[in-house]
Amino acid sequence: MPTPDPVRDGIRCLLMRGGTSKGAFFLTSDLPANPAERDDLLLRVMGSPDPAQIDGLGGAHPLTSKVAVVERSSDPDCDIDYLFLQVGVDEPVVADAQTCGNLLAAVGPFAIERGLLTADAGETVVRIRLLNTGDIAEARFATPDGRVDYDGDEAIAGVPGTAGRIALTTRGQKPLLPTGSMTDEIAGHRVTLVDNGMPVVLMDAAEFDVTGDESPEELESRTELRERIETIRRAAGPLFGLGDVSTQTVPKMFLLSPPRHGGAVGTRAFIPARVHPTIGVLMAASVAAGIRIPGAVGSAFAVLDNDEQTLLEHPGGTFAATVAVTGDATSGWRASSSSVRTARKIFDGLVFPRPRR
Predict the structure, then answer these.
(1) Cα-based distances in Å from 98 to 27, 110, 196
(2) What backbone phi and psi angles, to 5 degrees, belong to 229?
(3) How far from each other are the two terminal CA atoms of the chain, in whole angstroms?
(4) What Å distances lie between residue 31 and 34, 38, 41, 285, CA to CA?
(5) Predicted local distance difference test score (pLDDT) of residue 336
(6) Do 282 and 304 contact (CB within 8 A), yes or no?
(7) How far, in Å, CA of 95 to CA of 104, rounded?
(8) One Pfam family from the UniProt entry (predicted)?
(9) What sign for the dihedral angle of Cα 118, 124, 129, 133?
(10) Residue 21, Cα to own-chain centre: how many angstroms?
(11) Phi, psi for 85 (deg, rounded to 5)
(12) What's the pTM value of the predicted model, to 2 decimals?
């Protein structure tokens, strides 16, 4: 038998929405084992680099230019290993420095769709190792008759309609504050670096002449603002232990403001070149944990109660992040988080990469 040619024979792919993101899901065994060959192939699959991604699966936005690579876990305490890859839209970059909590919602269902796991009757719990970060997540969702039920009454901001509920719980494996400090100074600004599953930098929106009710498009149009935030992001990268992040999509940059709509705090997220129309799952977990630490940026004006749920306001509405923060300034801070997402399979079949970039 001749070796399959991806361009002519195609590659097995399941297009799925997970939370407020959309991505191409692959089995590890269906992609090249060599990372450089894999990344080149994925750029051709997604149609990058091209602002419109007209010749591939990508949707011309970072939230729709994502890839999940999934296999059975080699860790006896987990069921599935999940590698997230952020594919650049108009740049030939495939980044693996971060994970994606939105696509995470679809990993369990994908594993069942591809036969990596057998669904339990009624409800299935999948233990997932996030290879990008080393964190462990648990996904719980309905599987009546041994199949994933994508229908349901759960609504999330940023996604029209309703779908089946997927409950996610994530346990971070790293210190919550990478520098050990509640605040650091970068480029003349007081910032807080937090990593509760996603490296984020918290900044006071008022220092940047941002009120907190601006649209993503308005913030993206402010070139000087974007340049200032990018300067801080690049300086923060090494403090997270990420090294040079000039070509990476982490850390995520958050402008925080007092809440306006009954939530705990207002957020505008630079991810990093575009402004997120809502907020990512693990971004929300990191922000919610950060503002619960006394002295951190945002903690002074955040409206918090004693319960673990934190309602984060964003351009598309609100996101309820449930975060438990423990520790103190002496012993260090740690956190665990949970959230509710939805997911849906959109298209299953073969994807045909373009012959060359």
Answers:
(1) 19, 20, 12
(2) -70, -35
(3) 28
(4) 9, 6, 8, 31
(5) 85
(6) no
(7) 16
(8) PrpF
(9) positive
(10) 8
(11) -130, 125
(12) 0.82
Distance CA(19)–CA(209), nearest Å, equals 31
- Tell me if 173 sits within 8 A of 135, measured CB to CB: yes
CA distance 116 to 225: 46
What is the residue-wise DSSP string for 173-196?
-S-SSTTSSS-EEETTEEEEEEES
Phi, psi at 112, each rounded to 5°: -75, -40
> DSSP letter at 222?
-
What are residue 232's phi and psi, to 5 degrees? Answer: -65, -40
The whole-angstrom separation of Cα 102 and Cα 139 is 12
pLDDT digit of tens for each residue in the chain (357 aa)? 677 899 999 999 999 999 999 999 999 999 999 999 999 999 999 999 999 999 999 999 999 999 999 999 999 999 999 999 999 999 999 999 899 999 999 999 999 999 999 999 999 999 999 999 999 999 999 999 999 999 999 999 899 999 999 999 987 667 899 999 999 999 999 999 999 989 999 999 999 999 999 999 999 999 999 999 999 999 999 999 999 999 898 999 999 999 999 999 999 999 998 999 999 999 999 999 999 999 999 999 999 987 889 999 999 999 999 999 988 888 889 888 999 999 999 999 999 999 987
Contact between 340 and 324 (Cβ < 8 Å):
no
Residue with tokens 């994530």, as numbered in its chain: 170
Q: What is the DSSP string of 74-116?
A: SSTT-SEEEEEEEE-SSS--EE-SS--HHHHHHHHHHHHHTTS
Long-range contact list for 5-10, CB < 8 A, 24+ apart? Answer: 6/41, 6/352, 6/353, 7/352, 7/353, 7/354, 7/355, 8/352, 9/350, 10/349, 10/350, 10/351, 10/352
What pLDDT, on the 0 to 100 scale, is given for residue 330? 83
Distance CA 91, CA 216 (A): 21
Rounded to whole angstroms, the Cα distance separating 119 from 290 reads 36
Name the packing angle between helices 101-113 and 281-290 (round to 10°). Answer: 140
